[in-house]
Design goal:
alpha+beta, Heat Shock Protein 90, 2 domains, five-stranded mixed beta sheet, 12 helices, 12 strands, about 15% strand, histidine kinase, transmembrane helix
Length: about 475
């Protein structure tokens, strides 16, 4: 019963019903035509028997009876002209119950007579009149019983019925496969997109991309895309309006960090006569540019108009290099070393500015943790790729996260690991990675150090 509640099941059932209905509409005229052919064949055989009598002057009773049996009739009348008739006759078991003139029968008459014959179970004797073959006379008339006629019609009807059943099953099966391929699979694909989007409506990568070649389905996909896009914007608007205070704190946190980096560059420019000043100038420009960009998007965030990630391909090693060089300036004389294990040709498709913010927050948290421990340490950033995922790790040899920080990880104002920390760095990083359709997780944290892992889906991002 569950199968019949599916689109495929109902289509299969309706197809079988409609094909059978069409076969029934064909069946009735076919049986009527078969009855007419049967009677005509009896007239032809009776005409041959009559011609045998005509060719012989005298014929014995035994031969006459044999001719009638071969013709399948009781009596034969062949009128060749107005003056002469040739007759073969035998005793009839019953009186004649009806006369059928095939010379003037219409399709409607033939169909009604055929239905009546199938309906009548009692054997009767009927008279049949028709035109002789090859114009061998004016008319031919025979009498015969209906048992053989009815049996032949039933046998023919059953063969037609079985053939119709086979045709119905084959046709329904072919149409079922066609509907599965043309309609059901595309519909299931749309449903799959809807389920995927429902699982994470804030992920812009899960918005459906219309691809169907069927006009109606493509229109449905385009409408769904528009609805999902509007819904994603609406969800962001409600979330950000509800957390406006937290949003401003997040922006202020990143703005403070970026401006701190810029200030360090400025201090270096002011105090040093080193020729390296020219090399540092681009770094200063980049930091100030990031600060300006973040300021420009502050109001947009409050209005829930902050754009999603701007995806482009870039070398990850360059972004990691900028982050680490900035942190090296902040380290000063602290005994902290940095390590990079990034394939030089590893290309990410993501928002480079947002990835800079994510890595900067993670590296900065690691630096602060090592400094607070009072011991030397190392911060390492590594990355590799699989067939469907980019995997990044930020590790440190610090003291590990406190239990409270691990319990409230990624929660603003609760997940801070250092005294005076707000915990916003991890919250911002997790939100930015989530916007890319990826995940930020704590892979390990103990007395040997802490490792954060970033997973970015390659397939989902490349389709965006």
């Amino acid at each position: 019963m569950r199968f019949l509640n599916t689109l495929s099941g109902r289509f299969l059932l309706l197809t079988a019903i409609f094909v059978m209905l069409a076969e029934v509409l064909i069946f009735v005229p076919s049986v009527a035509r078969y009855r007419e052919d049967f009677l005509i064949s009896r007239l032809e055989r009776a005409q041959i028997a009559s011609l045998a009598l005509l060719a012989s002057e005298e014929i014995g009773p035994d031969l006459e009876q044999e001719l009638l049996q071969n013709a399948g009739v009781f009596n034969v009348v062949l009128r060749r002209d107005e003056a002469r008739q040739l007759v073969l006759s035998s005793d009839m078991p019953k009186p004649i119950s009806g006369t059928y003139d095939l010379r003037s029968s219409t399709p409607t008459t033939l169909i009604s007579d055929a239905i009546a014959r199938l309906w009548e179970t009692e054997t009767q004797v009927i008279r049949v009149i028709g035109d002789p073959v090859k114009m061998a006379g004016l008319l031919i008339e025979v009498t015969l019983d209906t048992k053989e006629l009815r049996d032949a019609m039933i046998d023919y009807g059953l063969r037609i019925l079985w053939l119709s059943l086979v045709i119905s099953v084959v046709t329904a099966g072919l149409l079922f496969l066609a509907v599965q391929s043309i309609l059901v699979k595309p519909i299931k694909r749309v449903v799959g997109h809807m389920q995927s989007y429902a699982a994470a409506p804030e992920d812009a990568n899960r918005v459906i991309e219309p691809s169907s070649s069927i006009l109606e389905l493509r229109e449905a996909e385009e409408t769904l895309k528009l609805m999902q896009t509007q819904l994603t914007g609406s969800l962001k608007q409600k979330e950000r309006l509800a957390q406006l205070g937290g949003a401003v704190a997040k922006v202020s946190h990143d703005l403070r960090n970026i401006l701190t980096s810029a200030q360090l560059f400025i201090d270096r420019l002011e105090m040093s006569e080193d020729p390296a000043v020219k090399r540092m100038a681009p770094k200063l420009v980049n930091s100030i540019t990031r600060a300006v960009h973040l300021c420009e998007t502050t109001l947009a965030y409050g209005k829930a108009e902050e754009p999603g990630p701007t995806l482009s391909r870039f070398r990850l090693a360059e972004v990691v290099g900028d982050v680490i060089e900035s942190e090296r300036l902040s380290v000063g004389d602290s005994q902290i070393s940095f390590a990079e294990d990034i394939p030089d040709q590893l290309m990410l498709r993501a928002d480079s500015e947002q990835m800079y913010r994510v890595l900067s927050n993670l590296v900065r948290n690691a630096r602060q943790a090592i400094i607070n421990s009072g011991h030397p340490g190392e911060i390492a950033v590594s990355a590799h790729e699989t067939d469907d995922t980019w995997i990044l790790r930020v590790s440190d040899t610090g003291p590990g996260l406190p239990a409270k920080a691990r319990e409230h990880l990624f929660q603003p104002f609760q997940g801070g690991a250092t005294k005076g920390g707000t915990g916003l760095g991890l919250t911002i990083a997790a939100e930015l990675i989530r916007g890319h359709g990826g995940t930020l997780t704590l892979e390990a944290s103990d007395e040997a150090g802490t490792t954060f892992r970033i997973d970015l889906p390659r397939g989902g991002v490349e389709k965006a």
